[in-house]
């Protein structure tokens, strides 16, 4: 099997060539904008309302932990606003130079959410180390009560976002922010309880470092997954080589050239390929067979397949007394 990488651009075909075809031309997937926006907006109202209260309480209690939680909630609000904006952009129809629309806006939003989690984790690490070195005096009781209310608020906000389309990396990014904020409040509540019962003020810094570890894990996951899409990598779990071999093994297929598999946006894989069919084969039937294989077996509904007859002079037609020559190209 010979492997070619990159795209070949050719003008004109043999007289027996069949027209290329996009298996789902004009079909629009998009996100469920109306429903998702309502759930995200409900979470945004809860988060911003409690954040304002927490800032006031943090100043009164002299608690840097509560102020850090409030700062985290500020990034939560920003992530939800960013997600809402990205949803509107992604829902716009394709036009002009943007032939796929603005669906990748949600991937940029997910990337931003992942980066902010990592940056916030770095800042909280600095704050936690400072608290371990010189623990401040705080009102443990007020800190505990506020943290417990924060847990309830974040549980409700997280439930709201979980009702939205979490297969979208955009929504998942906002959800990860809320989930880590919930862990932060749980850590703050535990630290406050320890402070109230034992007077061990460094518990706040220890709990913060545990939360930071969870934030870094979530942030790296978002950056990795969104980065794969931005770099046009094959969808996770898809082996382009194995997929190309499977397509080349279908009846009447002689060669597969310029096979590319990538992801347009969350949960929307795409494929393009140049397929050579036996001179006496029905290229339209082959195309339909490949489209069915990709859609039903691999979840690839957006397939652009150019199908041509292989000229007999090039030796690519089926030899009844010998093996079929198949040449498969893989990229990404």
Automatic annotation (TrEMBL):
Residues 245-309 form the Cation efflux protein cytoplasmic domain. Residues 19-28, 315-332 have a biased composition (Basic and acidic residues). It is found in: Membrane. It is a multi-pass membrane protein. The chain crosses the membrane at residues 39-61, 73-91, 112-129, 141-161, 182-200, 206-223. One of its GO terms (molecular function) is zinc ion transmembrane transporter activity. Residues 1-31, 313-332 are annotated as: Disordered. The keyword Transmembrane applies. One of its GO terms (cellular component) is plasma membrane. It comes from the Bacteria. Keywords: Ion transport, Membrane, Transmembrane, Transmembrane helix, Transport. Residues 1-12 have a biased composition (Basic residues). Residues 40-231 form the Cation efflux protein transmembrane domain. Belongs to the cation diffusion facilitator (CDF) transporter (TC 2.A.4) family. SLC30A subfamily. This is Cation transporter. The lineage of its organism: Bacteria, Bacillati, Actinomycetota, Actinomycetes, Kitasatosporales.
């Amino acid at each position: 099997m010979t492997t070619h990488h990159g795209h070949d651009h050719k003008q004109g075909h043999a007289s027996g060539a069949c027209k290329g075809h996009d298996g789902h031309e004009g079909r629009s997937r998009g996100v469920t904008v109306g429903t998702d926006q309502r759930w995200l907006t409900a979470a945004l109202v809860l988060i911003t309302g409690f954040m304002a209260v927490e800032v006031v309480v943090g100043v009164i209690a002299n608690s840097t932990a509560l102020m850090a939680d409030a700062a985290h909630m500020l990034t939560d609000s920003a992530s939800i606003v960013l997600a809402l904006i990205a949803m509107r952009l992604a829902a716009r129809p394709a036009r002009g130079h943007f032939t796929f629309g603005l669906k990748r806006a949600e991937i940029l939003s997910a990337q931003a959410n992942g980066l902010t989690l990592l940056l916030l984790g770095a800042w909280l690490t600095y704050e936690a180390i400072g608290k371990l070195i010189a623990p401040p005096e705080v009102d443990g009781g007020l800190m505990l009560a506020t943290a417990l209310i924060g847990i309830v608020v974040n549980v409700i906000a997280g439930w709201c976002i979980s009702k939205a389309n979490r297969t979208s990396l955009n929504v998942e990014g906002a959800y990860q922010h809320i989930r880590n904020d919930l862990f932060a409040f749980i850590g703050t509540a535990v630290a406050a309880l320890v402070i109230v019962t034992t007077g061990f003020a460094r518990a706040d810094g220890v709990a913060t470092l545990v939360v930071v570890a969870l934030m870094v894990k979530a942030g790296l996951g978002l950056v990795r997954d969104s980065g794969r899409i931005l770099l046009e990598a094959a969808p996770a779990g898809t082996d382009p080589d194995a997929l190309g071999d499977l397509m080349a093994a279908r009846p009447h297929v002689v060669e597969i050239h310029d096979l590319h598999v990538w992801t347009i946006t969350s949960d929307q894989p795409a494929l393009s390929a140049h397929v050579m069919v036996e001179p006496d084969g029905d290229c339209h039937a082959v195309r339909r067979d490949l489209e069915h294989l990709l859609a039903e077996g691999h979840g690839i509904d957006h397939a652009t397949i150019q199908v041509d007859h292989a000229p007999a002079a090039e030796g690519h037609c089926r030899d009844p007394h010998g093996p079929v020559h198949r040449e498969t190209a893989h990229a990404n």
